[in-house]
What we know:
423 residues, Rossmann fold, Aminopeptidase
Amino acid sequence: xxxxxxxxxxxxxxxxxxxxxxxxxxxxxxxxxxxxxxxxxxxxxxxxxxxxxxxxxxxxxxxxxxxxxxxxxxxxxxxxxxxxxxxxxxxxxxxxxxxxxxxxxxxxxxxxxxxxxxxxxxxxxxxxxxxxxxxxxxxxxxxxxxxxxxxxxxxxxxxxxxxxxxxxxxxxxxxxxxxxxxxxxxxxxxxxxxxxxxxxxxxxxxxxxxxxxxxxxxxxxxxxxxxxxxxxxxxxxxxxxxxxxxxxxxxxxxxxxxxxxxxxxxxxxxxxxxxxxxxxxxxxxxxxxxxxxxxxxxxxxxxxxxxxxxxxxxxxxxxxxxxxxxxxxxxxxxxxxxxxxxxxxxxxxxxxxxxxxxxxxxxxxxxxxxxxxxxxxxxxxxxxxxxxxxxxxxxxxxxxxxxxxxxxxxxxxxxxxxxxxxx
Length: 423
């Protein structure tokens, strides 16, 4: 992408490769942002020489004012220069070429990109800028002109599409001053992207090219052929194990078999149990119901369903699920039921506590969250017993096929809270 094979030496005798900074904008009142200050302080020594190439060679008064302001901004972050040059009509072509060749830093200022590039070409500075050692800094128009191929829509009344050859320091064609509140500007960016890939930068964003590496500081948006690349926030994948055998002091937890499923049909006929078993109709014929058993579900590593079995007599008690709610947030819920003749013996609490341990310590989930009908006291008592915190009640928020519309009590616990409690 870049011609970065030229080696140069700073005043301490250290060897560096060519460095390029492409600013979208610099605040005209407050100066450099914290991130701009951090990078400039890292890359720019105090006591170097700097030359400013202006965008309008004949507006001397404005050029002087802008350079004075930029020098102040550098001083504000403790960077001072031993020599300062301004390239405009007050320096002739030969003088300008020598100044640029010998400057430690060249600063391409903002303004009219095409006008700035025309002066650069008129003064034969493009090749010198491309080949020179040292640091090149651009802002707005100056950053635009660093590209090999420049394209933008002019601000004239005809909205002319402007295209020309830039300096060629990089293939990155930036579109500065991105503001998502400016819909017309967004439309312009997308229109331009039909002709060439561009990188849109908000004013606080910039690009540092150092030792052949391109580093984007703060957000940037590549727009190519009418398509914008908006990256989502990174997240950690869950290290799924699938349903593995677990146990407690009294219970075994294993994958559900076809025989278990057949037994579950008769256990779930109990109206007291069926009342809170979800929003859909359950089976009413054992032969038809068994057709819904899908053993292949266990091939999915993110599927967690266990049958609950007593160790002492191998009696099948019920089932427990760990249901993934949001894989990116790493949250899940624990759902459970057991047969009525084993209620009140603490089995559900024992099972749920083991599943929570598995969820937090093996899968490293961020949060367990569950809910239960307000009238189903036994269910939400289990949640409290295993350490979940009451988070409120949602009135009339859930429909049970056999229990109707219910108020739901919400519970949850984070991994940090869980780890703190087991210390």
